[in-house]
Amino acid sequence: MKRTARHFLKGEDGATAVEFVLVLPILLSMVFGIICFGQYFAIANSLQQLAAEAARYSAIGITTTERENLANAFITNAGARFTFLGQDKMARTITTFSGTDPDGIQVSLSYDLQGSAVDVASGFLGLELTTLTRSSYLAY
After folding, report:
1. For residues 58 and 72, what is the distance between their CA atoms, to the nearest angstrom?
2. Measured between alpha carbons, how far is 6 from 124 in angstroms, rounded to an integer?
3. Secondary structure of 83-121 in the HEC alphabet?
4. In this predicted model, what pLDDT tens digit does every residue of 16-51 receive, in sequence order?
5. Closest by Cα among 73, 71, 72, 61 to 140
6. Which residue has the higher pLDDT, 61 or 9?
């Protein structure tokens, strides 16, 4: 009996399994954090780029109504270029400034993060991050 107990205490057969169990939660947390940050960065970058391109595209219009319509059309048809963004989760606000010096347009986009990995991490960490907003201003 003494020999079996001594052999059990000196044995290293389960050491790898114990180390794996201790390291796995940290590893999974890091991978999940990388995924969440990547998704947040991709959405933020796509929103900013879409707002800037819509504002620039509106510059070919002559009247303020035409410029608003061009910016709206650009955002509506941007699905092929911005596949990371869902049109159903995006809200837009287009404001034109006329009679000012200089005239301009501001395109603001808000994206609903509910159901994304960012939303899961936000709920887990208590950040209350539900929407992401980016805007772009272009003076004519």
Report:
1. 9
2. 45
3. CCCCHHHEEEEEEEECCCCCCEEEEEEEEECCCCHHHHH
4. 888 899 999 999 999 999 999 999 999 999 999 999
5. 61
6. 61
Strand ordering across the sheet containing 104-112: 90-97, 104-112, 131-139
Domain locations in the chain as residue ranges: 11-139
- How many residues belong to the chain? 140
Q: CA 102 to CA 140: how far, in whole Å?
A: 6
Give mean pLDDT, residues 70-76.
95
- Say how far apart CA 92 and CA 112 lie, in whole Å: 12
Contact yes or no for 88/112 (Cβ under 8 A): no
Structure tokens at 70: 């061009």
